[in-house]
Amino acid sequence: MQYHPQPTAGTARPWAFPAPERGSLPNGITVLRCHRPGQQVVAVEISIDAPLEAEPEGLDGVATIMSRALSEGTDKQSAEEFAAELERCGATLDAHADHPGIRVSLEVPASRLAKALGLVAEALRAPAFTDSEIERLVRNRLDEIPHEQANPARRAAKQLSKELFPATARISRPRLGTQETLERIDAAAVRAFYDAHIRPSAATAVVVGDLTGIDLDALLAETIGDWTGTPATPRPVPPITADDTGRVVIVDRPGAVQTQLLIGRIGADRHESVWPAQVLGTYCLGGTLTSRLDRVLREEKGYTYGVRAFAQVLRSGAPDPVTGSTGAAMLAISGSVDTESTGPALEDLWKVLRTLAAEGLTDAERETAVQNLVGVAPLKFETAASVASTLADQVEQHLPDDYQATLYARLAETGTVEATAAVVSAFPVDRLVTVLVGDASRIEEPVRALGIGEVSVVTG
Fold first, then answer.
1. What share of the chain is helix, strand, coil (3-state, %, to 5)?
2. pLDDT of residue 324
3. How far, CA to CA in Å, does 265 sit from each of 70, 164, 168, 246, 380?
């Protein structure tokens, strides 16, 4: 039998995160473009500086309702007609609100970019915000809340934010609003938020894909470039403060057969020089199946299907001249264990953290983390959407356009000692807030016996 010859690998080519070209439109929109030959699905990310902390008092969630309403009809088309036009383009359009601001995301075949951008411009320039559509969106959002409350991971995240941040800070409260605040939202409130914050001078458009044969300057000028509005004024960004006094909060779920763990505090964000080492060390601790936490809690003890450690940027303003940042990242460890194993699992988790502080990471752990983080980057950014989303994140976090490209070089240069120091500083055993969603009657006493902080119980 004769077999087809085995394929051979091609010549390795150097890779770097794509560098965008920066420009602007006469109406004030900043534009980042990135030509990616072969990417026939173009991704557009429009980031608008309208953070959640700009929501009026008592109207938490109005930014979310407004962003969802952008595609629910305009001054020229009903919601159904607008959706049909998007479908004819083969496009997907999404919008959401988060702590940094509003994000509008479009993906469309390059051949239909002009039509789809025209629809996006129409939605930004003249959204309808009809009473019936706003009422429907509010009802839909209210219907989501019981499902979120029933989800242990979502419930733990909500409790951790409440524990860490002062009640007066918007970041301490649910991102999408509460039942009480949502019930106050009507079309007038949505329109008022739009009028106050949604304007071209507060927007940055990121366009990524194969732009061959596309006159992007003319196309942008005819679509989002035709959007007008008053100039945006700089918004003060208050520093994020948090109380990370070591303690345990149990959200009681009588009869639960599992306990959801979420352990966290705040730490350095991407503006700070320690970020690459923090990323590397956190990955060694709990970034993958080969991490220390998984090796002990999953492989050796069988407590869980997996535990992860991660850092998530919460909000980042322009760098402070003294500290280098006005933002922060959430540093957290998350996973679930069976109810009976809650006490032993937490005990072993703290042992992992103490051992890490005493003995440090190994060179082999550091090497594996670098290979996983840096080596897979070309695969991670194969699509235009992934590149556009990352560039938009950089805009929201006031980072330079080459940040992602330089990050990989810094990760590769970071040594084992630096990574150890960063992760130990990120997860000090006596400064962690632990949230457990589970059956308090079965887990409270074993957790108290661990001595990892004062224990309190709240209703689920």
1. 45, 20, 35
2. 47
3. 35, 7, 18, 9, 28
Higher pLDDT, 315 or 166: 166
Burial of 289 (0-12, 13-18, 19+ CB in 10 A): exposed
pLDDT for 87 equals 96
- Per residue in 214-237, pLDDT (tens digit) is 999 999 999 999 999 888 777 777
* Nearest alpha-carbon partner for 458 in 248, 217, 246, 286: 248
Mean pLDDT (the chain) is 94
Return the closest-CA partner of residue 413 out of 360, 377, 374. Answer: 374
Write down the pTM of the prediction. Answer: 0.93
Residue 97 has pLDDT above 80, yes or no: yes
Decide: 70 and 334 in contact? Cβ < 8 Å: no
CB neighbours of 287 closer than 8 A, spacing ≥ 6?
Answer: 308, 309, 310, 369, 372, 373
Sign of torsion over alpha carbons 66, 326, 428, 373: positive
Three-state DSSP class for 369? helix
CB neighbour list of residue 299: distance below 8 Å, 6 or more residues apart: none
Integer CA distances (angstroms), 268 to 73, 158, 310, 380, in order: 41, 21, 12, 24
Indicate left, alpha or beta for 332 from its phi (over 0: left) and psi (-120 to 50: alpha).
beta
Q: What is the DSSP string of 104-154?
A: EEEEEEGGGHHHHHHHHHHHHH-B---HHHHHHHHHHHHHHHHHHHH-HHH
